[in-house]
Design goal:
The structure holds two protein chains of two kinds.
Chain A lengths: L1 H17 L2 H27 L4 E8 L3 E7 L1 H24 L7 H23 L3 H19 L6 H32 L4 H10 L2 H19 L8 H7 L2 H11 L1 H13 L4 H24 L4 H28 L3 H36 L15 H14 L6 H17 L4 H33 L16 H19 L1 H7 L1 H10 L11 H31 L3 E4 L17 H4 L1 H6 L5 E6 L12 E6 L1 H19 L9 H34 L1
Helix pairs in contact in A: 1-2, 1-4, 2-3, 2-4, 3-4, 3-10, 3-11, 3-14, 3-18, 4-5, 5-6, 6-8, 6-9, 8-11, 9-10, 9-13, 10-14, 11-13, 12-13, 12-17, 13-14, 13-16, 13-17, 14-15, 14-16, 14-18, 14-20, 15-17, 15-18, 16-17, 16-18, 18-19
Chain B lengths: L1 H24 L9 H11 L2 E4 L4 H19 L15 H22 L3 H32 L4 H6 L6 H21 L18 H4 L5 H27 L4 H25 L8 H22 L5
Helix pairs in contact in B: 1-9, 1-10, 2-9, 3-4, 3-9, 4-5, 5-7, 5-11, 7-9, 7-11, 9-10
Classes of the chains: A mainly alpha, B mainly alpha.
Chain lengths: ~675, ~300
């Protein structure tokens, strides 16, 4: 499979380089489809079957490369390729506006293929050296995708921010992997697990934490999230969808894979992951609410959802450590299902935001409004995804949050005092996240799509072509299916979850979880809900026939011609929230003062900023800058000085070892005295 | 089946009892018990006016709101009788399905493009968000106490033996009454009888609804009262025999309705900016219940 993918990718890259601009897109799209179907076909066999294994010829440098598709890899390959395919179809249509930029499109198509290839490869490679290699390819090609609009300075800034942070992530991964390579001399994942099994759990935990930090930067856990709200809005919308949908999920994959190979103190690790995730979830959604930029708002929501996934993982870990099988199953299956769910609804949300951007030219929600009348399909798709991301029935988001909450209530029954306290806080946080998400998405949806347009200078909005809507329909269909037939999907996760339980040595014959029974009831309730709504709507429609139905203007206390400026705005919708959450938020206000009897024009601006970014990124950078500034005098721009530095350096290289030799000789001499 | 029928039955009389209590305390005889229901029936027969600004969201939202409340009622048990559907974790479903209805009522209010309705929608979203943790911690405490995670099992294994469990039951009833008042936008969080749009929460959201839709929304409010009443009753009647439990159920609903009437008669609405604090304080009462449960289970070493 890997060989086939390599050949396809290389062939496609050569073809893209050679052909004209229209053909490039078609070639890229067919290649994505071909690679996607090969990967999905292979993965489907391994999802609920035996793992597929092979060993590629390696070199003297890093040993041979074991490749293995077990059900965890299969799950991630499936969800990655699905979203990448929808992204490619969407992007194919989305990029038509940029058809004139030939060289940019070439680079973009090639990078897109490389992202798909490297993400798939990361899921199957079992050799740390090659893993890092593909990780780097992935990071670089995502960077190229992000900076498509490289003529805008803020895009370049966001891209470089991403590039730096993803390399910090690689540094952490390298640290961990090099440590193992030094200790065991091997580069395969098996050597990690054999090392951690033969050493104390403290070593395993430390190793895990180092690698976790690396993966957490990629996944966007707070406080490593600061690249995300810049990179997502700067990228073209299909890339934002893919980044938020699957690229950050590769961090989750890494964490899960490391949990499988590293033997650690699962309880401690579980608590650490749980607390970081609760903070990520709350912080992400709290900042999302005050954003005015629709894509930035969605980016902060990714942080929140990564938090929810992390809560599931943490729960599963604690379950592993305390030998609570049901809790382990509920935690991990909730996390894995939410990973799929989030990749679906978040990509649809980003694609809808892309449609809005394409047709109106802005994603500043304060300028939008009333789009439901002009972009009906996009707005309905956005609404369905918004309901799903809030975790509301009858869609998929509810199922995964239900599993995770079920895990908590299961833990409750066997918990001691410390874990009880953490349960109360986590459950409280989880439902608060749900409530805040509702506040956030009612705001985003109603300001962008409902009411009337707020800015008359914007171009008339129109619906995007069907080809662009098609992938969105597809993902939405899958969301509805997961909501209506949850047992099928949790059943598909069985083997993946069993990897964790078998790994920890649970007895496989233990009684199965009774959640499927709950899920069956939920299934019926959802069907009942939809049936009830349809019947009521039918009754309503029939009764309307006999009645007088009039149209009028919105009630305005007797005022007959309400203007669009009197509508509630996004800022006013969340004002009382923003006042309450003031200690956490960091909102910059610019206020023009009104004085004199006839005040002139004045304005009021607010810009939400990230407090954690200010403390963890901006401050250290400032300190570093002021420290390095002291050596500015060295860089004076005169060639003579630079040559002098060179000579000093050469001299130092030669003399310092000599000096050290002399000193040690003297020391030895002193010792003999 | 018996539980949902009883809830539906109670919902017909509930608002009438509240009204009667209020009129009696203010020295009037008041309208008949069935008057609120008659008002709803009259609304069902009326035509409707729709704003030009609104889209199809505004038309489907009341139906979805009503359906969500009805679906939530299905999982509530009555004494020895299970709800129509009962499963582990059904209270999670209960809370989330109500949130679905709220989601739609909020966006429907925003659909009108009115400045008033946006205000109500914003408040509703904020208040209901703060009320959720209180509910989950409350039910979590009781599932810790009983070892079960569905309404039916929790209520049925709740034997009110010692004095501390009585205290817990009464505290739970207090939290649930307050949640019911918040969810129904009643005093002390919201005043349904106010005539100023600026001080409304729920009423201002439905300014533009009329006819069938308005009837559905108003009836959903009645149903919600009966639903929370059934939950409160559940804490006390789980271990009674069927005949007694129906009597006790009706009695508790009656007391609940009278209490709502009394609260509305003798309390004033809070200032708007005090509401979030009040709702958050509910979570701490829930937390008190949680500590009480820990005490009962002797988890403190």
């Amino acid at each position: 499979m890997i060989n086939a993918l390599i050949i396809i990718v290389l062939l496609a890259i050569i073809l893209i380089l050679l052909t004209g601009v229209r053909l490039k897109g078609i070639i890229a799209l067919t290649t994505v489809l071909a690679m996607g179907s090969i990967s999905i076909f292979t993965a489907l066999k391994s999802l609920n079957g035996p793992a597929w294994e092979t060993v590629l010829n390696g070199t003297y440098l890093f040993g041979e490369v074991p490749v293995r598709i077990d059900s965890l890899s299969a799950w991630f390959i499936l969800l990655i390729n699905f979203t990448i395919i929808t992204g490619a179809v969407y992007g194919f249509s989305y990029m038509k506006a940029h058809i004139g930029r030939k060289s940019d499109i070439t680079l973009h198509s090639i990078a897109f293929l490389l992202v798909q290839f490297s993400l798939t490869a990361i899921c199957v490679i079992q050799n740390t050296f090659i893993f890092l290699l593909f990780w780097e390819i992935m990071a670089l090609s995502v960077f190229i995708l992000v900076i498509f609009d490289h003529h805008k300075p803020e895009t370049i800034k966001a891209g470089i921010n991403y590039l730096v942070q993803s390399h910090v992530s690689i540094v952490f991964l390298m640290l961990g992997f090099i440590f193992i390579a030094i200790k065991t001399g091997g580069y395969s994942f098996d050597s990690i697990s054999s090392y951690t099994h033969s050493h104390s759990s403290l070593a395993g935990s430390l190793l895990f934490l180092v690698l976790f930090t690396g993966f957490a930067i990629k996944a966007g856990f707070v406080p490593f999230h600061t690249w995300l709200p810049y990179a997502h809005p700067a990228a073209p919308s299909h890339v934002s969808g893919i980044m938020s949908g699957v690229v950050i999920k590769i961090g989750i994959y890494g964490i899960l894979r490391m949990l499988l190979v590293i033997k650690t103190d699962y309880v401690t690790i579980g608590y650490i992951i749980l607390s970081i995730s609760v903070i990520s979830g709350l912080y992400g959604v709290m900042l999302a609410i005050v954003q005015h930029n629709l894509k930035r708002l969605l980016a902060y929501h990714s942080i929140e959802n990564i938090g929810i996934i992390g809560i599931g993982i943490g729960l599963g870990c604690i379950g592993l450590g305390t030998m609570n099988k049901m809790m382990t199953i509920l935690g991990f299956s909730g996390a894995l299902l939410h990973t799929l769910n989030h990749s679906l609804f978040k990509s649809v949300l980003f694609y809808s935001a892309g449609n809005v951007l394409q047709t109106t030219g802005t994603v500043n929600i304060e300028r939008l409004g009333g789009l439901i009348k002009k972009m009906r399909a996009s707005s309905v798709l956005f609404l369905i995804s918004a309901i799903a991301i809030c975790g509301l029935p009858p869609l998929n988001g509810f199922i995964s949050e239900f599993l995770i909450l079920g895990g908590f209530y299961n833990w409750l029954l066997t918990a001691d005092l410390l874990s009880l306290i953490s349960i109360v806080f986590s459950v409280g946080a989880l439902v608060l996240i749900g409530g805040l998400a509702i506040l956030c998405f009612t705001k985003a949806y109603s300001i962008v799509f409902l009411g009337t347009g707020r800015d008359r200078t914007l171009p008339e909005a129109t619906e995007v072509p069907v080809l662009q809507l098609l992938p969105m329909y597809l993902a939405t269909l899958l969301m509805i299916l997961i909501g209506l037939f949850p047992s099928f999907f949790t059943g598909a996760l069985n083997d993946t979850v069993n990897l964790f339980t078998l790994n920890a040595g649970f007895n496989p014959d233990l009684p199965q979880v009774n959640t499927p029974a709950s899920l069956a009831s939920i299934n019926w309730l959802f069907v009942g809900l939809i049936a009830l709504i349809s019947v009521l709507l039918l009754i309503r429609k029939r009764s309307e026939k006999k009645k007088v139905i009039e149209r009028g203007s919105t009630w305005g206390c007797g005022y007959e011609s309400p203007a669009e400026r009197t509508q509630y705005t996004a800022s006013s919708f969340v004002r009382s929230y923003a006042k309450l959450a003031k200690p956490v938020l960091d909102i910059e206000k610019k206020e023009g003062e009104l004085n004199e009897v006839f005040p002139g024009k004045s304005q009021y601006e607010t810009h939400p900023y990230d407090k954690i970014e200010r403390v963890f990124i901006d401050k250290p950078l400032k300190l570093l800058n002021s420290f390095t500034d002291q050596f500015r005098f060295l860089q004076n721009g005169r060639l003579q000085f630079y040559i002098l530095y060179g000579i000093i350096f050469v001299a130092a290289v030669i003399t310092i070892p000599l000096l050290i030799d002399k000193i040690s000789a003297i020391l030895n001499f002193l010792k003999t005295m | 089946m018996i539980s949902i029928s009883l809830i539906l039955l109670v919902s017909l009389f509930f608002p009438g009892i509240i009204l009667r209590t209020k009129s009696l305390t203010s020295g009037r005889l008041g309208p008949g018990l069935m008057q609120p229901v008659k008002d709803v029936v009259r609304l069902f027969r009326k035509g409707a006016v729709y704003s030009d600004t609104t889209s199809f969201i505004f038309r489907i939202a009341p139906t979805i709101y009503f359906s969500s409340v009805l679906m939530a009622c299905l999982v509530i048990p009555m004494g020895q009788y299970r709800g129509l559907v009962s499963f582990d974790g059904d209270f999670v479903f209960f809370a989330y399905i109500l949130a679905l209805g709220k989601f739609f009522s909020i966006i429907a209010a925003m659909d009108t493009g009115s400045s008033f309705e946006g205000m109500g929608a914003s408040r509703e979203a904020l208040y209901s968000m703060f009320a959720e943790p209180a509910f989950f911690i409350l039910l979590g405490s009781f599932s810790l106490l009983t070892g079960f995670t569905s309404f039916y099992d929790i209520f049925n294994s709740l034997h009110l033996g010692s004095s501390i469990t009585y205290t817990l039951g009464i505290l739970a009833a207090f939290v649930l009454i307050m949640i019911a008042m918040i969810e129904n936008s009643r005093m002390p969080v919201d005043d349904p009888k106010t005539h100023l749009e600026l001080t409304m929460v729920h009423e201002v959201m439905i300014l533009d609804n009329s006819g069938f839709d308005l009837g559905l929304i108003i009836y959903s409010g009645y149903l919600k009262f009966a639903m929370y009443g059934a939950l409160i009753a559940g804490f006390f009647i789980g271990s009674l025999s069927p005949g007694w439990s129906v009597t006790a159920f009706l009695l508790i609903q009656l007391v609940f309705a009278a209490t709502v009437g009394l609260i509305e008669s003798f309390m004033a609405r809070f200032r708007m900016n005090h509401n979030p604090q009040f709702i958050l304080a509910l979570s701490s009462v829930s937390f008190l219940i949680f500590l009480g449960v820990l005490l009962v289970l002797e988890k403190f070493v």
